[in-house]
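Weekly puzzle thread! Below is a chain. First person to post its structure in token form gets bragging rights.
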Amino acid sequence: MVVTEDQLTTRERPDFSRHANQAATAPAYFSCWDVHAYYGESYIVQGVSFNVHEGEILALLGRNGAGKTSTLRALARLADPEVKRGEIWLDHKPLHDMASHEAAASGLQLVPEDRRIIAGLTVEENLQLAQIAPPIGWSLERIYELFPRLGERRRQEGVTLSGGEQQMLAIARALARNIKVLLLDEPYEGLAPVIVDEIEKTLNIIKEQGITTVIVEQNAIRALMLADRAVILDTGTVVFDGTAQEVLDDEALRAEYLAI
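Winning reply:
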């Protein structure tokens, strides 16, 4: 059933909702404020607000269909879903009136779930293509230092890499651009636990470089163990905004919104 903003009614929430948007009043590096977004007439992102502080890792969580990927796409300023109301700010700069390429040039980089590795190009050519126009981010040498496996496979066609290596390449391609905030959609999808360990080590190194990360991940426990803070969505609205440890410590909260 299509739900419109006009038809939305206030719903009863458990006591967990007292946490929602508590952090939204604090100074932040990356913020979204009352964001509403639609796929056609379908009202998907329903007034989402939260803050992310510089150098922080935020886990954006929820059940399937909660609106996590749609929120991430809206923040990245993709055409779908269409943002019809709300504000998105990065480092005191408004992004809400920008197209996706303009937001990317301002430092917002999205790594989608399908990774978008370009067929027919080698690892290095995928990275070089990301740097074809300014603003340019990390050098290839710095990227290969962080991802030595990519350095070893720089002449190999990108789509022939393993799933974990393709995820590394997708993150590396984001780093090749000017980057302030990294948006990751399901980075652990289909990966063995040992590869997830490698990805997490990489994200911690990126954090040490001062880069801010928002991660959407179905493997909520792994994401929470990595993250500083967590925002939980339910049917396109924020129902929890607090520390990752609070979610790990609250079994009832996890059962209600994450089914874990």
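Puzzle host: Confirmed. Bonus trivia for everyone else. Residues 94 and 115 are 26 Å apart (CA to CA).
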